[in-house]
Amino acid sequence: MKSIEKMGFEEATPIQAQTIPLALEGSDIIGQAQTGTGKTAAFGIPLMEKIDIKADHVQGIVIAPTRELAIQVSEELFKLGYGKRARVLAVYGGQDIDRQIRALKKKPHIIVGTPGRLIDHINRKNIRLGEVSTVVLDEADEMLNMGFIEDIESILSNVPAERQTLLFSATMPDPIRKIAEKFMKEPKLVKVKAKEMTVSSIEQYYLELREGEKFDTLARLLDIQTPELAIVFGRTKRRVDELSSALNIRGYMAEGIHGDLSQAKRLSVLKKFKEGSIDVLVATDVAARGLDISGVTHVYNFDIPQDPESYVHRIGRTGRAGKKGMAVTFVTPRERGQLYAVENTTKKRMIKMKAPTLSEALEGQQKAVTDRIISTVEQEDLSLYTSTAEELLQKYSASDLVASVLKLLTKEPDSTPVKLTEEAPMPMRRDRNRSSSSSNRQRNGRSTSPQGRKDYGNKRSRSTGQRRERTSK
Fold this sequence. Notes:
The protein is α/β, with parallel strands linked by helices. It has 2 domains: about 180 residues, Rossmann fold (3-Layer(aba) Sandwich); about 220 residues, Rossmann fold (3-Layer(aba) Sandwich). The protein is about 40% helix and about 15% strand. The strands form 3 sheets. Strands 3-4-2-5-6-1-7 form a 7-stranded parallel sheet, sandwiched between helices. The chain has a 7-stranded parallel sheet with strand order 10-11-9-12-13-8-14, with helices on both faces. Helix 3 crosses helix 4, helix 6 crosses helix 8 and helix 8 packs parallel to helix 9. The chain is elongated. The termini are far apart.
């Protein structure tokens, strides 16, 4: 209880309230819930309650799809088990395996790992599963998407039959159902209702844009909204690299994160983002899974996600701990179907936002600078600067001096050309319960026929060829 109080838990979330009592009874559980609903504590609290701290063998295994999620879950479990001094270890690809072998010799009670690295250690006899009493599959549908199903089956086949299995998944496709049927005993279903998939503290907007208008629109939104910490989601690794580079060219402090980065680099980028030394994190869906970064105020979906569940995962990075958040999604004319699918799944209609103009971006920056000046006047000691200020006032008018300060501090909109490679929309993964005709509906009389041009830039120019690289101005 001390550990739970220390972590700031005051009231159980719906998934926790339903899961914890059943898990403490020893039932197998299928939990259908999204990221950000508190599911780590939902399985972590009962898992910690069952740990025999005096035992020197592995008692619990948590399987996670990505390194980031494995690290995040292990950190949460460590905090939950702090009072008991439970030993928790994360094992994942990209980290020195010899280092992990040394850590395994310290006899962790719980191991959190990615499927591939767990299999590696099991085959090397570094991890023995003969006395494991609890197995947790976290984000099972994502592991399916990443091709880990055979690895999961192999791991489960090595764990004693007399065990408790907890499976968490945002969706329940057939392969996941088959795993449940094969490896679970009369599982209890715990499901967070669709209306709970997105929280009311997140304001959700969309803009309908041609592909070539997206980057300049993003830059202007950053200027106007001045987010404290923002995450921009791109569809591919190449998109993430190009977006982060383009943002830096335009004067924003941005870095990208995706699966091709070394683990050391990924952790370095995340550390800088958490500390505020970079303002914008550009990420792919997979790289952002499991990230728990407080203070994210804005999420920008530069590319609309392939499926509605990914949208929920993305915007769940903001609006946490009762704070307000904003999610803005860019939609091209031929991506209206994805927009409708997202709204149908989340049961929430996004508000259409008008694309900001260049003058609005400048006004937004001036307002941000004005707020900083007012805050400085009201809160800082300016005694060291008043004599110089008075001298300047003898020579220049107050309005000219204030205007010059505004000009010096304002980041004026930049039109430096940047290159982005066009990314074709990916086929939408449809919800099995959703009517196939819903994506063809018309919204407020707008046509759904694809007619977007492919130029990149804020000038209206026609696409004149089949080149894949365009220039944004």
